[in-house]
């Protein structure tokens, strides 16, 4: 089994491993770095740090996939560090992605058992065993089927923003009833999609502002702050074809509101 650093070196990625900090990017209580990576903003996100975490000349970045699995997302040269211009008490790094790795980023999965530290020096006893080299870069999975949709707000924004084909094809061609769950409280909102572009159209609105025009969700986000949408989870309760009438969809929405008691105890 080959380690990540020797493999990168053999592949032509030139950096001084002894002057390299490894960034084990994990959920920080606000955002998951895998969502940032999928959205294409990992480097900029990584450059904003709470303190001077990258004291070496290079940063090797890995994103947590769970169960000791990490996705390789690049080796960066550290160009400089200064106080962040708008967030007091934090720092802003300047970095550049090293050449020769564009076809490796997002494809290599390594195993490493993290203790507590998210920033560690690359030392001989730090072994990042390569477990898989994927044929394609890791992206948000194709649409899994209507009965298997369970996504976060961050994932919804990526799906809508990038108009991922399999999701668009599936959601734009069906009407139905969906569920938004506040994962911090367990409260549910049942909604319906009966327009020409189906669930895709409604979920575009949620991706944009978090509330989609719904009174209770508006009130919740106003009370809790806009970033509270990170607690929202989206799934599909029931689908109907595009010929279903508004009355039919409304009836099914009412049914699910009754089943889940979302009027009495939820967000409807």
Q: Characteristics of this structure?
A:
single chain; 27% helix; 268 residues; 12 strands; eight-stranded mixed beta sheet; 8 helices; four-stranded antiparallel beta sheet; alpha+beta
Helix count, DSSP H or I runs of 4 or more residues? 8
Poorly predicted ranges: none
Proportion of residues in helical segments: 25-40%
Mean pLDDT: 94
Order of helices and strands: HEHHEEEEEEEEHHEEHHEH
What is the chains' assembly state? Answer: single chain
Briefly note the structural class of the backbone: alpha+beta
N-to-C CA distance: 54 Å
Rg over C-alpha atoms, rounded to the nearest angstrom? 22 Å
Question: Hey, roughly how much beta strand do the residues contain?
Answer: 25-35%
Notes on the structure:
The chain is α+β, with helices and mostly antiparallel strands and 268 residues long. It has eight helices and twelve strands. It has helices spanning 4-10, 33-38, 42-47, 153-161, 165-171, 198-209, 215-224, 246-260, and strands at residues 20-25, 48-49, 58-66, 69-83, 91-97, 108-111, 119-121, 129-133, 150-152, 175-182, 188-193, 232-240. Strands 1, 2, 3, 4, 5, 6, 7 and 8 form an eight-stranded mixed β-sheet that branches. A hairpin with a 2-residue loop joins β3 and β4 (69-83). It is elongated. 32% of the residues are buried. The mean pLDDT is 94.
């Amino acid at each position: 089994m080959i380690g990540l650093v020797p493999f990168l070196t053999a592949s032509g990625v030139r950096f001084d491993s002894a002057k390299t900090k490894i960034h084990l990017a994990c959920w920080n209580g606000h955002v998951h770095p895998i969502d940032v990576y999928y959205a294409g903003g990992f480097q900029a996100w990584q450059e904003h740090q709470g303190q001077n975490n990258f004291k070496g000349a290079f940063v090797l970045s890995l994103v947590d996939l769970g169960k000791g699995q990490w996705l390789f997302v690049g080796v960066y040269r550290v160009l400089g560090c200064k106080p962040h211009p708008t967030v007091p008490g934090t720092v802003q790094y300047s970095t550049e992605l090293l050449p020769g790795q564009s076809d490796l980023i997002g494809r290599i999965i390594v195993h490493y058992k993290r203790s507590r530290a998210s920033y560690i020096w690359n030392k001989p006893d730090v072994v990042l065993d390569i477990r898989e080299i994927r044929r394609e870069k890791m992206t948000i999975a194709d649409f899994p089927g209507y009965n298997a949709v369970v996504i976060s707000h961050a994932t919804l924004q990526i799906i809508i923003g990038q108009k991922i084909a399999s999701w668009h094809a599936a959601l734009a061609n069906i009407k139905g009833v969906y569920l938004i769950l506040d994962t911090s409280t367990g409260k549910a909102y049942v909604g319906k999609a009966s327009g020409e572009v189906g669930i895709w159209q409604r979920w575009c609105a949620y991706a944009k502002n978090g509330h989609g025009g719904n009174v209770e969700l508006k009130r919740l986000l106003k009370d809790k702050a806009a970033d509270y949408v990170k607690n929202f989870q989206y799934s599909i309760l029931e689908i109907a074809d595009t010929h279903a009438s508004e009355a039919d969809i409304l009836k099914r929405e009412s049914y699910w509101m009754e089943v889940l008691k979302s009027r009495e105890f939820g967000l409807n």
